[in-house]
Protein-methionine-sulfoxide reductase heme-binding subunit MsrQ
Amino acid sequence: MLWLKLFVFLASLAPAIVFSGLAVAGAYSPDPGQALIIRFAHTATIFLLITLSLKPIATLKGLRPVIRFSRMAGLFCFFYALLHFLAYLAFKTGFMWSLFEMDLAKRPYVYVGMAAFVILALMAVTSTKWWQRRLKRNWKMLHRLVYLALILIIVHILWVARSDVWWTVIYGTIGTLLLAWRARLHWLKRRSIAAENRPS
Ligand code: HEM
């Protein structure tokens, strides 16, 4: 398992190294900044969908162990979202507050992306066993916010979408299926609690 974990870790890190290397080598000219913003954005979104898919996959026969990769996938989602954010700040605003303010007025969808980013950051920080023990039942409730982050990200992408709408359709469809799976699980749980509490 340790070797598999190490392999998955290195494979997850590879896009960051490859994209940055290609940008430095000039493969994304004339606008490497824009290329990096977009590539990190898609990688973060894919990691979010992978993270959320692991739970339904783990319910399939013999695939329970995949759940052990949830935390790593979630942290990589945050890592790529952070790179997306940093690339945006570096290449669109030059880390200048006045330019950031002007850009926010031009692209209101950035607010939605930032709200999703805050949720991802909160979950990354509280993903340790220590926080799990400290927050007890609230930890589960907090980590359910990932579904709100998913909705916000779908809105963010739909808002940005220009000619290339295929990615939006694919992410939106997978995201909707995952939300439907989660809603069904919630409904089944409530139904079984109600059945247990019904007077016989
Ligand atoms: C930290 C806050 C965020 C900021 C400031 C931000 C900013 C942006 C900007 C400016 C674009 C348009 C890029 C362009 O085409 O010119 C964009 C697109 C996008 N963002 Fe974000 N974003 C944020 C959070 C997120 C998060 C958390 C995710 C996913 C986990 C995400 C995923 C995407 C995707 C998939 C696109 C579409 C890329 C494309 O055009 O193909 N963003 N974002």
